[in-house]
Amino acid sequence: MSYSYLFKYIIIGDTGVGKSCLLLQFTDKRFQPVHDLTIGVEFGARMINIDGKQVKLQIWDTAGQESFRSITRSYYRGAAGALLVYDITRRETFHHLTTWLEDARRHSNSTMTIMLVGNKCDLDSRRAVSYEEGKKFAQQHDLIFLETSAKNDENVEEAFNYTARIINEKIEKGIIDVTNEMNGVKVGNAPTATTNLLEKPTTSEPKGKCCG
Amino acid sequence: MSLQAHSSVLSPSDDVSIDPTTNTGSNPQGHTRTFSNQGIGSSPSSDGFLSKISKYFKSSTPPTPTSSSSTVTSPSTLTPSGGGNNNSTSTTGQYYSNSVNNIGSSNSTITTPNTSNVVGSTNTPDYYQQKQKQLQKKQKKKGTTPKPGTISKVRGASFPIEAISEQIVGVFPQNSNITTSEDDSLSEKSKVYDPFEEGPRMSIGSDNGSNSSSAGNTFVIRNSGNISNYLSDDEGVSESKLEKFRQILNSNDDIDIENLRKLSWRGIPSSVRAVVWKILLGYMPLNRERTEQIINRKRKEYLDYVSKYYNEEHLQKTEQETALQKQIHIDVIRTNPDLQLYQNPRIQQALERILYIWSIRHPASGYVQGLNDLVTPFMSVFLYDFMKCDILTCDPDTISNEIMEHMECDSFWCFTQFIDFIQDHYTFAQPGIQRMVNKLEEIIQKIDESLFNHLQSNGLEFIQFSFRWMNCLLMRELSLKLVVKLFDAYIAEGDEFENFHTYVCAAFLKTWSERLQKMDFAEMVMFLQHLPTRTWTFNEMELLLSQAYMLKVLYDGNNHLN
């Protein structure tokens, strides 16, 4: 299937925060309550539509365990977008965000768009990190922020799509050089310019909070 | 579905007098090993043998199977029509090439009646017919039925040929039922319980149709004779093979571990698997009189570790230890999520303790995800040995505390020894795994250049798909039942199994070569992380092991690979 752009993503964050479940929900529209541990990396792909353009997302879902860090680091290179995921019911996964962010910034290209994702917002009764804390962290570090539930398919689509919109904007503004594949963007065989001239992109920010 | 006929090709079985624990090259440790010549007549390095194999493995355009749904006709339905034993060498060489290549086909079937669509050379069935006829004559004379998998003698460079044909006959003992579970006519009586029957692990983004087939679709050839139910996973394991095991195990002297090792390589009957694993891993002594004493001491030692390091009443855990325990706890719940047994709290707690104790006793590596997978074959095999029942469907709450405890202790020690063989796979940056991935890449470049080039031109790196193969020893790719068989070979290999595993992975990747070469990058990654191995039976497993063994013989110790 033809596409205008191909964006490469990486999903990072502590083990057990629901990275693979987010990907599975996004690519397969299903939820697996007990998911196998991700060893090394897994891969998923899906086509989305951004302002009338077909955009193919290729997503590397990385293992969260520290031991695999040396393997997973290599996937930062050549990624245009990153979902940095924590679990709102486990505070330590939120505390580790700083380390993750440092790692991501050090090993990725400077134009990589990072979306902070507070997952498992369906478990509000067990919440250990408030929405405000997540939002504050995102603002401090210049990240986009959403709370999601891979289980209930809340904001999952938005997390991937909104990141793609930002990347698209960066392309349009010339911030991302599409001729350099290391930026995680590849131009496809479908026309990219026509729709831009005809319609103005509407990038309304999705509501950040998924539950209440 | 079954490929029993194919699976026997070049099987490095003791039955064909090839010593599987030896090879022609020198191993990484520098021991020079020699090929067992008994019954072969010429060493595998002789031209006739090697050139044939080399030709196949080096061929950039390997022969393609005649159809994706290949069928092997049961010799019992064929009539002899020419083709003598003496001139069969080239014929079967051709057959070998095709059949090896054909492993990629998941649609291969063995049918008994009315089929003559045979893979590869059209001469091949003649040869089978001839052999079958001869064997039937022999049996009539002797008044015996052939034992599955038994080969008396293999001659000269035609080793593969003999192996194929005689084992094919062995696969079809006259009193056996050849059934598929898809066959409506399958009677309940012939449906035998299979303790390690289950599907491979499922993962995200499944995009191939293979997952839709239920575990029940697995095709098996079973001996409907007098073998009791719990032996029923022993496809191709004959009574005589079991008897050989019994002879070694019941010896009045110390157990002959080298013979046990050789015998075990091609699969251990499930009735003796637990004890053989324990002996080969050095957990059980070779002297039977000391067994009880030593096992009791080891069990006590483990239980002491548990009370010393694990049970919370006794100690204040450090922050690191608490984090470790939390991590293991989360992972244990996610271990074998599709197997009911591993969702049981008692089993999960046992697994958690094993992993925790192992991790704090191995600080250089600590707990690495994937190790949780690797404990489960031990737990399953030992539990099965104690319970002698379908451990994957039985109610784990009915297992006595004593059995649970023994299973846990034994699993801990055997797992520990097993992982000791591959220590640096789980230390910082996992150098052992990097080494294996690099070697896999080198092997593939040698044996399947077109696949190698295809992967390269699409930008697919070996680490991207084979890391998990190495980290979890193909446990995510194969069902537990088949993994247990793989572990038979690895435990028999002992400290060399890392090397052998690389060749297993090479043979495994080559299995999908043709399909992969029609795919682009994304398709390949998706395919490789959800390989259609659900329908795999022991037959595919045996073929995989045979191919890996041959690759190792051919390429190991070769300077350009080391």
TrEMBL record, chain A:
Any one Pfam family match given in the protein's UniProt record, by short name: Ras
Molecular-function GO terms, alphabetical: GTP binding; GTPase activity
Intracellular or extracellular location(s): Endomembrane system
A cellular-component GO term for this protein: endomembrane system
Classification via CDD domains: Rab2
Recorded topology in the membrane: Lipid-anchor
Lineage: superkingdom: Eukaryota
Record keywords, A-Z: GTP-binding, Lipoprotein, Membrane, Nucleotide-binding, Prenylation
InterPro entries per the UniProt record, alphabetical: P-loop_NTPase, Rab_GTPases_membrane_traffic, Small_GTP-bd, Small_GTPase
Family that this chain belongs to: Belongs to the small GTPase superfamily. Rab family.
Protein name as it appears in the record: Rab family small GTPase
Provenance organism: Naegleria gruberi
Automatic annotation (TrEMBL), chain B:
Domain of life: Eukaryota
SMART domains: TBC (SM00164)
Bias kind Basic residues: ranges: 134-144
Compositional bias annotation for Polar residues: 1-11, 19-48
Gene3D superfamilies given in the database record: putative rabgap domain of human tbc1 domain family member 14 like domains, Ypt/Rab-GAP domain of gyp1p, domain 1, Ypt/Rab-GAP domain of gyp1p, domain 3
Alphabetically ordered keywords of this record: GTPase activation, Phosphoprotein
Pfam families registered for this protein in UniProt: RabGAP-TBC (PF00566)
Keyword Phosphoprotein belongs to the record: yes
Region Disordered, annotated ranges: 1-156, 195-217
Record PROSITE patterns: TBC_RABGAP
Bias (Low complexity): 66-119, 203-217
Molecular functions per Gene Ontology: 14-3-3 protein binding; GTPase activator activity
Domain Rab-GAP TBC as annotated: residue spans: 267-494
InterPro entries recorded: Rab-GAP-TBC_dom, Rab-GAP_TBC_sf
Name of the protein this chain belongs to: RabGTPase-activating protein
Lineage, top ranks: Eukaryota, Discoba, Heterolobosea, Tetramitia, Eutetramitia
